[in-house]
Amino acid sequence: MRFFSDNAAAVCPEAMAAISAANRLDTAYDGDALSARLSGAFSELFETEVEALWVATGTAANSLALAALCPSYGSIICHRDAHIQNDECGAPEFYTGGAKLLLGDGEGAKLSPETVDGLIGSIRKDVHQVQPAALSITNATEYGLVYTPDEVAALGELCRSRGLGFHMDGARFANAVARLGCSPADLTWRAGVDALSFGFVKNGGMSAEVLVFFGGEHRQASLYRRKRAGHLLSKGRFMAAQVLAMLEGDVWLRNARAANDSAARLASAAGDRLVLPVEANEVFLKVSPDEAEALRSQGFDFYDWGVGEARLVTSWDSDPAHVEALATAIEAL
Amino acid sequence: MRFFSDNAAAVCPEAMAAISAANRLDTAYDGDALSARLSGAFSELFETEVEALWVATGTAANSLALAALCPSYGSIICHRDAHIQNDECGAPEFYTGGAKLLLGDGEGAKLSPETVDGLIGSIRKDVHQVQPAALSITNATEYGLVYTPDEVAALGELCRSRGLGFHMDGARFANAVARLGCSPADLTWRAGVDALSFGFVKNGGMSAEVLVFFGGEHRQASLYRRKRAGHLLSKGRFMAAQVLAMLEGDVWLRNARAANDSAARLASAAGDRLVLPVEANEVFLKVSPDEAEALRSQGFDFYDWGVGEARLVTSWDSDPAHVEALATAIEAL
Amino acid sequence: MRFFSDNAAAVCPEAMAAISAANRLDTAYDGDALSARLSGAFSELFETEVEALWVATGTAANSLALAALCPSYGSIICHRDAHIQNDECGAPEFYTGGAKLLLGDGEGAKLSPETVDGLIGSIRKDVHQVQPAALSITNATEYGLVYTPDEVAALGELCRSRGLGFHMDGARFANAVARLGCSPADLTWRAGVDALSFGFVKNGGMSAEVLVFFGGEHRQASLYRRKRAGHLLSKGRFMAAQVLAMLEGDVWLRNARAANDSAARLASAAGDRLVLPVEANEVFLKVSPDEAEALRSQGFDFYDWGVGEARLVTSWDSDPAHVEALATAIEAL
Amino acid sequence: MRFFSDNAAAVCPEAMAAISAANRLDTAYDGDALSARLSGAFSELFETEVEALWVATGTAANSLALAALCPSYGSIICHRDAHIQNDECGAPEFYTGGAKLLLGDGEGAKLSPETVDGLIGSIRKDVHQVQPAALSITNATEYGLVYTPDEVAALGELCRSRGLGFHMDGARFANAVARLGCSPADLTWRAGVDALSFGFVKNGGMSAEVLVFFGGEHRQASLYRRKRAGHLLSKGRFMAAQVLAMLEGDVWLRNARAANDSAARLASAAGDRLVLPVEANEVFLKVSPDEAEALRSQGFDFYDWGVGEARLVTSWDSDPAHVEALATAIEAL
Q1: Which of D72, D128, D226 sits opposite B227 (nearest CB)?
Q2: Cβ of A122: how many Cβ atoms within 10 Å?
Q3: Under a CB-based contact definition with an 8 Å cutoff, are residues A143 and A81 in contact?
Q4: Chain A CA closest to residue C99
Q5: Which phi and psi (to 5°) does residue D258 adopt?
Q6: Which of A34, C59, D112, D253 could be joined to A240 by an S-S link, Cβ 3.0–4.6 Å?
Q7: What Rg value do the Cα atoms of chain B yield, rounded?
Q8: A 17-56: CB under 8 A from B
Q9: Mutate which of D73, D75, D220, D222 to test chain B, going by most B C-beta atoms within 10 A?
């Protein structure tokens, strides 16, 4: 009974069926009919004209976005616990040509405008220091919290006034939208976001994430950078296919809701054990080493999170029986 | 009737079935059971212990190999028509941190030891000039010729004596092996090759190529570079699955033979029109613009190759009827 | 009797005196009074508002200029014999983050508009190929020829129409201006040049070259890049001092004229032995190995240039007696 | 009366005389007789065979050292207040190709072995995280404290056991040696240091710092990197001359002692106002804004250091009368 990562989940039937259906001759790279529909499909979803590029990983999407928004001699403001800082082996530095990450604090991996403003203010405006050029937030965060449209907009307003580009790492964007019940537009470009890494793999996709640019000026350079990074797959139709299938009929939202619901069930079982509110598909709870061992001995698989805490991650395909069993087991601790 | 690129071919049934079968829970990234088998499977194929890493594109495989073999301040010797020079948007420069490509000539995109030696000799041994650090050849070449084991060994011997790393871009390695009937070992490490980009996508795979290191010293750094480049897919089992399925029962060889056979049929029809011998799955032939138009009007799709020439590429799934039709049409010109 | 390089010449008295005079307290980096005068002094010389940055080497000046004009995924068109290609150990690749150099031919290291246009035309307009972003020419060239204002303007017009940035490596800009008798403005911005590496070290300076931007948009980024490359010296006043001293009273022109005159004397002695016209301070002449040996045995120091040719370089401080002696010796061969 | 930076000091007479004396013909770059003596002179000073390279700035020396010790996918442990983190505009990231800086705390910009060990321990040993590859400390620190040979050796031992390269930023190395009265060898290679940026400019030089490698394996790559970064000056004899002149007769030590003595005088005047012990040539003291204003109104020039603190920096040429006057003024506050 797996609760250690949504990365390990299966591919949802809609995505798998679309991949099978794409197994026919078509033009190579992103010249195929499916890839050609990508920007249109996301433009519809976001209620504005966007540029959408498929890539194989969230790390690639994030890095291409950051390379578009930050020069080699600039810095990217992000949370100390951000995936781009801790889990991408320096990909932002590689793609930008050596930009710095400027780290802020905040509960649950969320940054406030005050924190961002303080970080900007900590940098002297001279050539000896690397100047902030972009802000990157993760929504839902690495700790399963969400930024509301208003919270994003406050940061977006700050970016605008300070001349920063604004990137959202949306590896779990679907979970955030599912939680908030807002429109994708309200959570992104209407709140000032310039580029979104829209995650599909954790949410039932196989191998495709989508980099969405709101505003067209970054498209051409990003196409070159994608190719140059080896991310222009030669049979791109399989990339587009899985994503389009998940947009159709809002499979992406349905999948995310399922994951969120499973997490909510675990949260209600956890009660006072919760380290943080559960707003998406991650549950952080206090458990002693003995308690963790007890859960594991019942067949539940999850990560310890430092000493005395555990991380439980649900996914679109979490088995309700497993969730219920884990909830019961937590209550019984 | 498509003859413009093997990149556009379908995925072979064995690969597709393996992908479907891999659609179950497993550990993320390359920690899954299938990925764990990769180095072993390739070690068996190459009759020596190798390190094998899946990546999504040949460009990524090539660039990771070159970054392992050439420092930022070095240069990579390759043919003027090499894919790494002309068709990867500067990926080698990106991954190496700014190495140079040092270009040589030779018919059909083949480099001779004399040419390579001449290029090395053209560089002064001082800090003002970028010093050669690696040689990269493509086998089968971009023009469908093959290097024999002896030819590779002659270059390998030169690399050894000059202290160069030796990379083989094997986007069509299967076609070369199929043509030569040699062992993969004889064509690579026994001939001095340090790193091979082993292509699967053009040969019936969906999205996985394999970077093979003969000798373990480059493995760890390459794992970091792969992650840092955003090429460590989170559901890596789908990558390993398709490759392993194509190794089993020598599907990779069977597919390549089919493609080569189709090209041979076209070559025999082309006769004096051939620009180069046909040794793999590419046919370059002289056709006037009117003749090219005549072929297209019969439904054959292919690239013009400069003025008065055309490139025909066959693939594992070239329809025999289409091949026969095209052969007949060429004969009838 | 030295004729092997103007790099080895002494520092002219005006520059040395200015350096001594600058040996007093002042603000660090480029905040001092002398550095503050730099852009003004060059604006006056060029009859337009320019931005001028001192750096310690021509390689640094060239690379900062190219990094301003060419993105990491672009290419720089230059001559096959250009200093940036052959004598900077890959500095352009380093500073741009991995751009390519696209090489053209032409006698005496000069590029014609036709050649540049042909190179542009050789690149497919797709993401697989690195797209040309800038043109770099050297004036006077590495072979001692000069581009006239009209020739520069023809290239400048091409750059404008094709959207390329235009850089001039002016390591021997002074020699070109001295030869042509034109205004610095006519040879640069009025002819479409965006950035000039204005050389002083070969011409009597100690350690300062000046990067001149015509148009202000590149200034701020270049200041960051200069610092980031370790080229913002902490006692910058010594850099500005030597350059300002050489601008005053046109010392730079006088020095260049002296070097050119010495070369002209050698050229007249060389007669039919000349490989190329002598338009600046370099003389390439045909001499057999025995003849070269004969000259060396008389105390003349110079570089062989391939087999059967020699390169003689004069400088601002070439001793007239040495020049006369060499001229006589050449005539006597 | 200047106390804001030793960067702004004059060039000492010995260095200036040597520069004048070097104003004669010699081979270009670092082929001249003076440059050829550099490694020998530093080998003598350090009582072991070292490789010494001149460069124009401390930023260049630091970055070349770090590029030698840390791969692009690694990280460099340093203090949060380190010059390489705060005052080099991302030069380490540029030269390494995008390495990370991993920041530690400690009073007065000093790192303890415990802190370094804790930072190493905070990084998971997997490919998702950037692995520590080098440690960089500054001696004397940015806050004017010194590491003793024993303290350096403790860090050196940690580096050895953890496989880290060890770099010392010695912009004020002379001040540290002068303070400690130890041998340069004891403070560096005998304590495990691999590379030292040996500062001369703040200590009376004009434009030359020296990168010293203890152990020869980094020399060749660093020569290429220096050229590639545009730091191989063409009249290198002026670089070597000033440094050699400061080594002769221990001018470097005498200059540093003078600066330290001036700081000590100020420290004794400051008494309880001292924020940190004064061990080199920097004095941090508590002064209210009114008090700072009072000092400035008497003609003393210095930096505020946050709110309520000031930084006073002395240099080799601090005028004793100015120092005495400032000491008196501080006492009178």
Answers
A1: D128
A2: 12
A3: yes
A4: A228
A5: -60, -45
A6: A34
A7: 20
A8: 19-20, 23-29, 55-56
A9: D73
- List of residues 6+ apart from A279 with CB closer than 8 A: A140, A144, A145, A146, A176, A179
Helix (H) or strand (E) holding A165: strand A165-170
Phi first, then psi: give them for residue C77, nearest 5 degrees. -80, 130
Q: How many CB pairs under 8 A join B and C?
A: 56
Q: Which helix (H) or strand (E) holds A196?
A: strand A195-198
CB contact under 8 A, B127 and D227: yes
Q: Does D238 contact chain C (CB < 8 Å)?
A: yes
For residues D62 and D136, the answer to whether their CB atoms sit within 8 Å is yes
How does pLDDT run across A21-48, given as a tens digit for each residue? 999 878 899 999 999 999 999 999 999 9
Closest CA–CA distance from residue C129 to any residue of chain D (Å): 23
Asked if D234 and C57 touch (Cβ cutoff 8 Å), the reply is yes
Query: Cα torsion for C41, C45, C50, C53, to the nearest 10°?
Result: -50
Q: Which two tokens stand for residue B118?
A: 């001449």
Q: Cβ(C128)–Cβ(C99) under 8 Å?
A: no
Return the bridge partners of A311, or none.
Answer: A284, A303
Q: What is the DSSP letter of C142?
A: T
Q: Do C224 and A127 touch (CB under 8 A)?
A: yes
- pLDDT tens, N- to C-terminus, chain C (333 residues): 889 888 889 999 999 999 999 998 788 999 999 999 999 999 999 999 999 999 999 999 999 999 999 999 999 999 999 999 999 999 999 999 999 999 999 999 999 999 999 999 999 999 999 999 999 999 999 999 999 999 999 999 999 999 999 999 999 999 999 999 999 999 999 999 999 999 999 999 999 999 999 987 899 999 999 999 999 999 999 999 999 999 999 999 999 999 999 999 999 999 999 999 999 999 999 999 999 999 999 999 999 998 899 999 999 999 999 999 999 999 999
Residues of B in contact with A16 (CB under 8 A): 20, 23
- Kindly list the structural domains of chain D, giving each domain's residue range(s) and its CATH number in brackets, ordered by start: 9-249 (3.40.640.10), 252-331 (3.90.1150.10)
Query: CB burial class (10 A; 0-12, 13-18, 19+) of residue A332?
Result: exposed
- Cα–Cα distances (Å) from C186 to A249, B52, C144, C158, D280, in that order, read 65, 59, 20, 17, 54
- Residues of D in Cβ contact (< 8 Å) with C2: 25
ipTM of the prediction greater than 0.95, yes or no: yes
Q: C314 to chain D, minimum CA–CA distance in Å?
A: 13
CA torsion B171-B174-B175-B176 (nearest 10°) is: 90
Tell me which residue in C86, C90, C130 faces B98 most closely, judged by beta carbons.
C90
B88 touches chain A (CB under 8 A): yes
Q: Tell me the pLDDT of chain B (333 aa) as tens digits.
A: 889 888 889 999 999 999 999 998 788 999 999 999 999 999 999 999 999 999 999 999 999 999 999 999 999 999 999 999 999 999 999 999 999 999 999 999 999 999 999 999 999 999 999 999 999 999 999 999 999 999 999 999 999 999 999 999 999 999 999 999 999 999 999 999 999 999 999 999 999 999 999 987 899 999 999 999 999 999 999 999 999 999 999 999 999 999 999 999 999 999 999 999 999 999 999 999 999 999 999 999 999 998 899 999 999 999 999 999 999 999 999
From D255, D64, D58, D61, select the one nearest D142 (Cα to Cα): D58
Q: Which residues in chain D are closer than 8 Å to B28, comparing Cβ atoms? A: none
d(CA A281, CA D22): 71
Q: Is A297 exposed, middle or buried (0-12, 13-18, 19+ CB in 10 A)?
A: exposed
Give burial (CB, 10 Å; 0-12/13-18/19+) of B321: exposed
